[in-house]
Design a protein that fits this description.
Low-confidence stretches: none
Subcellular location: Cytoplasm
Strand content: 15-25%
CATH architecture of the largest domain: 3-Layer(aba) Sandwich
Shape: globular
Radius of gyration: 22 Å
Helix content: 25-40%
Distance between the termini: 56 Å
CATH topology of the largest domain: Aspartate Aminotransferase, domain 2
Cofactor: pyridoxal 5'-phosphate
Number of strands: 17
Subunit structure: Homodimer.
Mean pLDDT: 96
Pfam family, one: Aminotran_3
Structural class: alpha/beta
Number of helices: 14
Number of domains: 2
Strand order of the largest sheet: 4-12-11-10-7-5-6
GO molecular function, one term: identical protein binding
Length: 414
């Protein structure tokens, strides 16, 4: 037995300071430590209540501890947890059927995260290109300020240098172009390109919605040069924009779509969706994962999918979006020295910080948290809101009240 362990290990007191002692410092979390939550309500170690407008970075779209999801997970936990990938299971087959029936896709590959889903998508694109063209088509085109994951491959494809510094040499044949720039896309996407990967709505890059003409142009260019078009819907998919997946609202169909985050409402799962024609290139043994598509994750994801993919549910997302956008536009009008614009789609929205407050999105986030509202940032110049899709009108009103209070305190201090 490890001499460092004792019988109180599961109950000993831990605090935010414990993080600094024992966790690899890849994050700088808030000082408060959440201990329980329900819906959009959350409480920390001191019993303080917060209204959560982060949903775990667009993950808990049905809210924390949603009873329907809890019941599904509990039922499956008492039935079958895990099998090696030499076997299949009923929940994953049902999930694959549901996703392919709800989308353009014929085939699904399941993994554990958005990074893994994008890794699979990019590997598939390279595999297809090798099979069809040999070594003549290696190049991947992505967008500046994009985010596709933290593996060495996906972080290299993501267009943010701050995430790749110190990890060189990076995988080759990856180029980045400005988002929503049609002329740049035309110049970059040539015959040597095997894949173009894009977020229909950029999340980490500043809550930037794709221009419909831009996404249509990417589709046309990929068709012209024989490249695979990948839509990364890890953050903007699963009802977040008011459609089940954002591509459906744009009317532009990709060859590969990736999903994660809200797919499991907090239970780790990712999915790569694609066509029969492309899927055949990932034959037995060419790719895999130990936990991907396990019965627990698949059961939860199917429950989430069936809940979100209902006309009334998606209509309510659009209704809530309109109300929240109206409140945010009111903040821009009333605090022009702090906020300059609202952008985004559905319930993935950003408040762009005005010039006098440039670089201070984190200050706004902390001020809101001090007043009991959890919000996100997307870089240092955008405040990001991604509440659970079940957010009520009263909760939107309350978030508006708290942001106003927080901003008033900030501006008074300034």
């Amino acid at each position: 037995m490890n001499a460092k362990l004792d019988s109180t290990v599961t109950t000993r007191p831990v605090t935010r300071a414990t993080f600094d002692e024992v966790i690899v410092p890849t994050y700088a979390p808030a000082q408060m430590v959440p201990v329980r939550a329900a819906g959009l309500d959350l409480w920390d170690q001191n019993g303080k209540h917060y209204l959560d407008f982060t949903s775990g970075i667009a993950v808990a779209s049905l809210g924390h501890c949603n009873p329907i999801v809890v019941e599904a997970l509990t039922r499956q936990a008492n039935t079958l947890w895990h099998l090696g990938n030499g076997y299949t299971n009923e929940p994953v087959l049902r999930l694959a059927l549901a996703l392919t029936e709800a989308t353009f896709a014929d085939r699904a590959f399941f993994c554990n995260s958005g990074a893994e889903a994008n890794e699979a998508a990019l590997k598939l694109a390279r595999k297809v290109a090798h099979a069809k063209y040999g070594d003549k088509k290696p190049r991947i085109v992505s967008c500046l300020n994009s985010f596709h994951g933290r593996t060495l491959f996906t972080v290299s494809v993501g267009g943010q240098a701050k995430y790749t510094e110190g990890f060189e040499p990076l995988p080759p044949s990856i180029d980045h172009i400005p988002y929503n720039d049609i002329e740049a896309a035309k110049a970059a996407i040539g015959d040597d390109v095997c894949a173009v990967i894009v977020e229909p709505v950029q999340g980490e890059g500043g809550v930037m919605p794709g221009n419909p003409d831009y996404l249509k142009t990417l589709r046309e260019l990929c068709d012209k040069v024989g490249a695979v078009l990948i839509f990364d819907e890890v953050q903007c998919g699963m009802g977040r924009t008011g459609s089940l997946f954002a591509y459906q609202g744009y009317g532009v169909t990709p060859d590969i779509l990736t999903s994660a985050k809200a797919l499991g409402n907090g239970y780790p799962i990712g999915a790569m969706l694609t066509t029969d024609e492309l899927a055949k290139h990932l034959a037995v043994g060419t790719h895999g994962t130990t936990y991907g598509g396990n019965p627990l994750a698949a059961t939860v994801a199917l429950t989430v999918l069936e809940t979100i993919n209902q006309p009334a549910f998606l209509a309510r997302v659009k209704e809530a979006s309109e109300k929240l956008i109206g409140k945010l536009e009111g903040l821009v009008r009333d605090f022009p020295q702090v906020f300059s614009a609202v952008r985004g789609a559905g319930l993935l929205l950003g408040l762009v910080v005005a010039e006098p407050f440039k670089g201070r999105s984190k200050d706004i986030q902390r001020a809101a948290e001090a007043q009991g509202l959890m919000i996100l940032i997307a870089g240092m110049d955008v405040v990001r809101l991604a509440p659970a899709l079940i957010v009520s009108d009263a909760q939107i009103d309350e978030a508006d009240r708290i942001i106003r209070l927080a901003v008033a305190e900030l501006t008074k201090a300034a």
